[in-house]
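quick one, 196 residues, struct below
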Amino acid sequence: MSLVLDPAAQDLLFREARTANTFSDEPVTDEQVQAIYDLVKYGPTAFNQSPLRITLVRSPEARERLVRHMAEGNQPKTAAAPLVAILSADNEFHEELPTLFPHFPQAKDLFFSERPAREGAAALNAALQAAYFIVGVRAAGLAAGPMTGFDFEGVRKEFLDDDHTPLMVVNIGKPGPDAWFPRSPRLAYDDVVTTV
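---
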């Protein structure tokens, strides 16, 4: 194998990692979440725009408000997960570009002065960051249960504002009993990669 990353780390992050559907009651601490963020913030985004925003749902009242917006099959696991994160795209990310992209501060106005351009860029780059976040959760020895089965507009109105677009809800914690569905097949290399 030509990968440099230790095989055990490869297993932890990819081969053995699964989407968890049940969780233990072991809490997920703020320190763990900060360590995850402090790792994954280095993942690349265009213009270093970093549009991902994370809303942690901890209180019972907030959890109840979120669960009612989840699809029926996602409600029990969202209610029971030790921590739930709403991942969203900040459509006003360009306001941070003079700080995040200091060698070309004009990018803010040159490329992102129009809202539709910002929304497209924010959606793509926040989705990249959401994937980094899931891998970061795994790197912390936790399981992630990312879901898009929810009322997007309901979650936006309940937890966000008009400048933020929800992307996914992620249940986070140590896996509980019967946490895994059987692994689904993956496409083979030759089905995905074309050399021209």
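The chain has a mean pLDDT of 96.
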